[in-house]
Amino acid sequence: MAESEAAPLGQSVIPIVNKLQDILAQISNPLDISLPQVAVIGSQSSGKSSVLEALVGRDFLPRGSDICTRRPLVLQLLQIKKKADGSVEEWGEFLHAPGKRFYDFSEIRREIQAETDREAGGNKGVSDKQIRLKIFSPNVLDITLVDLPGITKVPVGDQPSDIEARIRTMIISYIKLPTCIILAVTPANSDLVNSDALQIAGNADPDGKRTIGVITKLDIMDRGTDARNLLLGKVIPLRLGYIGVVNRSQEDILLNRSVKEALVAEEKFFQSRPAYNGLTDRCGVAQLAKKLNQILVQHIKAVLPAVKFRISSELVAVAKEHASYGEITESKAGQGALLLNILSNYCEAFSSMVEGKNEEMSTSELSGGARIHYIFQSIFVKSLEEVDPCEDLTDDDIRTAIQNATGPRSALFVPEVPFEVLVRRQIARLLDPSLQCARFIYNELLKISHHCMVSELLHFPVMRKRVEEAVGNFLREGLEPSENMIGHIIEMEVQCIFLFT
User: Fold this and answer.
1) Mind listing the pLDDT tens digit for each residue in 350-401?
2) Burial per residue of 174-186, b for 16 or more beta-carbon CB atoms within 10 angstroms, e otherwise
3) Residue 164, CB half-sphere, CA atoms under 13 Å: how many?
4) CA distance 174 to 169
5) Are the CB atoms for 112 and 62 separated by under 8 Å?
């Protein structure tokens, strides 16, 4: 894609994607929609921060010898026009501080540090909760970058012992998405084959179709060596290629040399090194920004139809759900009428399910009134039939009872008293199956109350909970007197024994 084509297209589609990302970031239950972005990964002190500051052209990131990036920083670079008088105005905006513009970039650094400490603590802790920052400047190209914590080996401060595994998991959660472009940063003074960034990128992007390699710190390579073969992809090939950059040294930072001065020094470095002749399109931060912008635009063009289809599908589903809620009135009278209508529909649904008139009748299992009938006619009757009237009643028991009833005299006929005693003991055994039947009916009525929730009631979770509580309490209040009545009936049968001769 030509630069003239990429610039206007990038200025139109990248801000749209950025706005979608901001919207999704503020949703408590974000949709499963992955949007195109560039994830910056690398080991600790690989030069990630210097690369990002060079792309912006300003100092704005926290610095230090230990881990600095402790939360994912979503950095949206947005190109604006210069003022009519030719002056340049640049500022930053945080999503967590809407409406506030930060014109002082050192204040942006302090805000990043403060927001990091608020979430991850002040002692090197790490969090996966994003910080979202927009930079508005005429000196940037439209790019969306995610600066991820550097891969570290040894935990420090409040970091857990498995800090390396946690950071790798966080990085993979971003770069595994097919819509994510991976910016793998590796210092030139380390072995590219052992690069942590390229290794983890290779796991998520084995074909190297989404990975751009960035070789930093070219100016501190051993004398007599250069990174030409690395930039040409002869060591580890990547389809999107490599870009070499020269970072600001720690001395430059201590002496407050600006990023713009460092970019001028970088240009002079490449011009003074014959090894990099013919590689102008692979050297320098300016080339990196241009390449990232072009690749991001191409990537957005490729994935935008699928993203549009997914968003459209979600909109249709949400619109359908919204329509199902119906119109809600704000007046007390209207709310009362709605409440009465919902409760009436619920009562009607409960009654229909018990009487077998439910339109959504199950064909796979018994339910409602049919299930209650089955409990009475099959389960309860069967449990009664399983009660053996002579169980635990031996001939010795009968003989002993007769002897006890005759007293000191012998009897010609069997007395009635031992018969009544033995029969009462056997009748009492009917109590447990009867109480069990009552509990089965109670549980079935509870199940019916859960299954017959009308659609309107499902839209009001608090009201649904209150209805379920009221019905549950009502059924529980009915179970106790039912069990008492069953006990009284059995007791009546025990107390009144009719003898037929």
Assistant:
1) 888 788 776 666 667 777 778 888 888 888 888 877 776 666 666 677 677 6
2) bbeeebbbbbbbb
3) 9
4) 9
5) yes
Q: What is the pTM of this model?
A: 0.64
Secondary structure tally for the chain: helices H, strands E: 17, 8
Q: Let me know: does 1 contact 297? Beta carbons within 8 Å.
A: yes
Q: Which residues of 208-234 are buried (b: 16+ CB within 10 A; e: fewer)?
A: bebbbbbbbbbbeeeeeebbbebbebe
- pLDDT by residue (tens digit) across 302-354? 887 887 888 888 888 888 877 776 666 777 777 788 778 878 888 887 888 78
The maximal CA–CA distance of the chain, rounded, in angstroms, is: 135
Domain 12-318 CATH (choose: 3.40.50.300, 3.40.30.10, 3.20.20.150, 2.30.110.10): 3.40.50.300
Identify the CATH assignment for 332-495 out of 1.10.8.420, 1.20.120.1240, 2.40.50.140, 2.60.40.1570: 1.20.120.1240
